[in-house]
């Protein structure tokens, strides 16, 4: 998103390098990374049917005989959870496998090589950190690579890894598949709440369907129960598609009814979550899910989130078709102003979204 190029983050230590020293016998994790809430919050296991996030089957959405029932299930998932796992999603295994392989190769590079993609002052794009706005705030135990992927003309290749050589191609192919899948999902989500399929899709069309990609690298930590990989937050855009490289290392948690639920990622599934824009556009019929990432004591974890965003000139507010028979629940604001407020503060759960709610 364009605002990533005008808003920066304070520079902090590289966590992958820090982990290499702190995971020894003598070095301690710096105080700025220690979080009391990491060990005090109750976590509900996500490996049983009563607490597992919903599973949506794209094949059933595409089958006229099961379409209606699966649309109802999809609508319920978006309203009650704000997140679901999508199976039979149609993105070829080779595409996701090549993407994750190239990303893993990037993080194996020496630090100096990765720094060739470093963020520049006043920009979040590139290799580094985000949402560091003060010298004394608590920090996340993770490094990231953020890239503006679509429109293709907006790509700034200063921040794109040149090793492995196939990196750009892998991102480009996956970006195209993710965009097509997102358009399909938006149509089914619209059907799930009883409006025309084009109602939501139209907000995200034009300007090359803006996409941003955030790659997260979570090093292991000997004090895993005292750090967080990614602070609680919601995503500011529309739909986020999440892949993780090693499903034997779980780390994603989502908040529902005031409790944290561990997400057990299924093999070959894509995790899809609702962002702030869709909650506002739907007048609250969809829920932007608050989520965070935790750390494993001795295994790394890599994930890649593809953000699908609306046109930059959007006036953000509930769509009339989705307000019918209900009161307006959110104030209107320009999407650009909304993003500036989001990116100039530290991650704050749902607080920024709650401030847009009408009394």
Kindly describe this structure.
This protein has 359 residues and is an alpha+beta fold. 29% of the residues lie in helices and 19% in strands. A hairpin with a 2-residue loop joins strand 9 and strand 10. It is globular. It starts with 14 loop residues before the first helix and ends in a 5-residue tail after the last helix.
Compact overview of the structure:
The protein is of the alpha+beta class and 359 residues long. The protein is built from eleven helices and 15 strands.
Strand fraction equals: 15-25%
> What's the β-strand tally?
15
> Rough shape?
globular
Mean pLDDT, as a whole number?
Answer: 89
pLDDT below 50 for ≥5 consecutive residues: which ranges?
none
SSE pattern, N- to C-terminal = HHEEHHEHHEEHHEEEEEEHEEEEHH
**SS-based structural class?**
alpha+beta
- Assembly type of the chains comes to single chain
Q: Could you give the distance between the termini?
A: 30 Å
The helix content is 25-40%
Helix segment count? 11
Major beta sheet, specifics?
8 strands, mixed
Question: Taking Cα atoms only, what radius of gyration do you get, to the nearest Å?
Answer: 20 Å
Strand order of the largest sheet: 2-3-11-8-13-6-5-4
Quick tags:
eight-stranded mixed sheet; globular
Task: Present the secondary structure layout.
Elements: H1 15-22, H2 37-40, E1 43-44, E2 55-57, H3 58-62, H4 67-80, E3 83-87, H5 93-108, H6 111-114, E4 126-128, E5 143-150, H7 167-192, H8 198-204, E6 211-218, E7 230-233, E8 239-244, E9 252-256, E10 259-262, E11 270-274, H9 276-281, E12 291-293, E13 301-308, E14 315-316, E15 333-334, H10 335-343, H11 351-354
Parallel strand pairs: 1-10, 2-3
Antiparallel strand pairs: 3-11, 4-5, 5-6, 6-13, 7-12, 8-11, 8-13, 9-10, 9-12, 14-15
Helix pairs in contact: 4-7, 5-7, 7-8
């Amino acid at each position: 998103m364009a605002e990533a190029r005008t808003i920066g983050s304070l520079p902090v230590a590289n966590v992958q390098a820090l982990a290499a020293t702190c995971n020894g016998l003598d070095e301690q994790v710096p105080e700025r990374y220690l979080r009391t809430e990491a060990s005090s919050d109750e976590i509900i296991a996500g490996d049983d049917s009563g607490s597992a996030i919903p599973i949506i089957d794209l094949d059933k959405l595409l089958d006229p005989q099961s379409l209606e029932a699966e649309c109802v299930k999809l609508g319920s998932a978006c309203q009650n959870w704000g997140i679901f796992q999508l199976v039979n999603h149609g993105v070829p295994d080779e595409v996701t496998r090549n993407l994750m392989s190239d990303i893993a190769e990037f993080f194996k590079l020496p630090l100096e090589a990765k720094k060739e993609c470093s963020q520049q002052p006043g920009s979040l794009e590139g290799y580094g950190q985000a949402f560091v706005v003060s010298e004394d705030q608590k920090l996340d135990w993770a490094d990231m690579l953020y890239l503006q992927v679509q429109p293709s003309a907006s790509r700034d290749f200063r921040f794109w890894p040149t090793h492995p050589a196939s990196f750009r191609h892998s991102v480009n192919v996956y970006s195209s598949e993710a965009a097509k899948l997102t358009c399909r999902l938006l149509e089914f989500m619209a059907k799930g709440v009883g409006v025309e399929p084009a109602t939501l899709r139209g907000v995200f069309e034009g300007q090359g369907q803006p996409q941003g990609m955030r790659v997260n690298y979570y090093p292991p930590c000997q004090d895993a129960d005292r750090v967080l990989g990614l602070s609680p937050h919601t995503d500011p855009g529309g739909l986020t598609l999440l892949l993780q490289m090693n499903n034997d290392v779980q780390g994603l948690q989502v908040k529902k009814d005031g409790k944290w639920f561990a997400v057990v990622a299924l093999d070959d599934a894509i995790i899809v979550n609702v962002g702030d824009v869709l909650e506002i556009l739907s007048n609250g019929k969809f829920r932007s899910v608050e989520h965070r990432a935790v750390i494993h004591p001795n295994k790394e974890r890599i994930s890649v989130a593809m953000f699908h965003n609306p046109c930059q000139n959007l006036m953000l507010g509930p769509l009339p078709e989705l307000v019918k028979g209900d009161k307006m629940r959110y104030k209107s604001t320009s999407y650009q102003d909304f993003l500036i407020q989001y990116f100039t503060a530290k991650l704050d759960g749902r607080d920024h979204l709650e401030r847009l709610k009408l009394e």
